[in-house]
Amino acid sequence: MYDIVVSTRRIGWHHDAAGVAPVWNDGFIGEPISLTDDVDGLIAAELVTEVIDVEPLFVIDHDPMKSLPQGLSHPQANVTASQIAALHETDSPNETLKGSLVLNHVDVHLLLVRDDRIFLARRINTGYMDGQWNLPSGKLEDGEDLVAAVMREAHEEVGLELERSAMRLATVVHKHAPDGPARVGTFFLATRWVGEPRNAEPHKCSEVGWFPVDELPADVVPYSRVGIGQWLRSESFGLLDWPQPVATH
């Protein structure tokens, strides 16, 4: 079984019974292959589940984990064979590769504001903060830029077709996750739209509504609440749930 894919682009992870597979950033030497290419009889794309934007250079068999293929190096990240092997001993890949690689998921959130009221949707059947109000939102997908992602989420979740020129980056929230990779949340304000937002995903949303921006419901998902607050205060960036930094002198 092949476990490690080395990429010229972004970072992702693949989890399977054998362990956690890192996908590294650029800096490797080799001939590029496609994820759909047959590698020694194995389609690599079937194994990699969370890669964002991949043009892999190597696929490494997980059996000979104690040595790296000849010519494989990363002058920027300084990842060693022992660190790779350690990935199979831990559920915390970020901790294993601390100081070498950092993985953060990227989210997009949509701010629809009209007459000082903001559009929210109540989550159901998602496994995350179900029963609470949330901004229309989702994850950045393979091949998307941030604006394309938030436009897609607007169509999927609230039935709006937004124009790229109408999207404005309002703020960014860097959210700590104690049990997994941190998240970078981008919040886009739609300056105009045609039509009325609606519940386009009733299997994931029980109701929608407009609320005063300065009187949000008590049960708003903290991720959304923090982003809305930063936008109202014209703050371009903020942190959520990170441990208190230790003061240095």
Topology:
Layout: E1 2-7, E2 12-16, E3 19-24, E4 38-39, E5 42-43, E6 56-61, H1 81-86, H2 93-96, E7 104-111, E8 113-114, E9 117-123, E10 133-134, E11 137-139, H3 146-158, E12 167-175, E13 182-190, E14 205-212, H4 222-232, E15 237-240
Parallel strand pairs: 1-3, 7-13, 12-15
Antiparallel strand pairs: 1-6, 2-3, 4-5, 7-11, 8-9, 9-10, 9-14, 12-13
What does this protein look like?
The protein has helices at 81-86, 93-96, 146-158, 222-232; strands at 2-7, 12-16, 19-24, 38-39, 42-43, 56-61, 104-111, 113-114, 117-123, 133-134, 137-139, 167-175, 182-190, 205-212, 237-240. With 249 residues, it is an alpha+beta fold. It has a 5-stranded mixed beta sheet with strand order 11-7-13-12-15.
Number of strand segments: 15
Task: Determine the N-to-C terminus distance.
Answer: 50 Å
CATH topology term of the largest domain? Nucleoside Triphosphate Pyrophosphohydrolase
User: How many strands, which pairing sense, and closed or not: the largest β-sheet?
Assistant: 5 strands, mixed
Q: Which oligomerization state do the chains in this entry correspond to?
A: single chain
The CATH class of the largest domain: Alpha Beta
Please write the string of helix (H) and strand (E) elements: EEEEEEHHEEEEEHEEEHE
Counting DSSP H or I runs of 4 or more residues, the number of helices is 4
Please give the share of residues in helix. 10-25%
From the spread of the alpha carbons, the general shape counts as globular
Q: From the 3D coordinates, which CATH architecture of the largest domain would you assign?
A: Alpha-Beta Complex
In angstroms, what is the radius of gyration? 21 Å
* Tally of discrete structural domains: 2
Q: Which structural class is indicated by helix and strand composition?
A: alpha+beta
CATH superfamily of the largest domain: Nucleoside Triphosphate Pyrophosphohydrolase
Beta-strand percent range: 25-35%
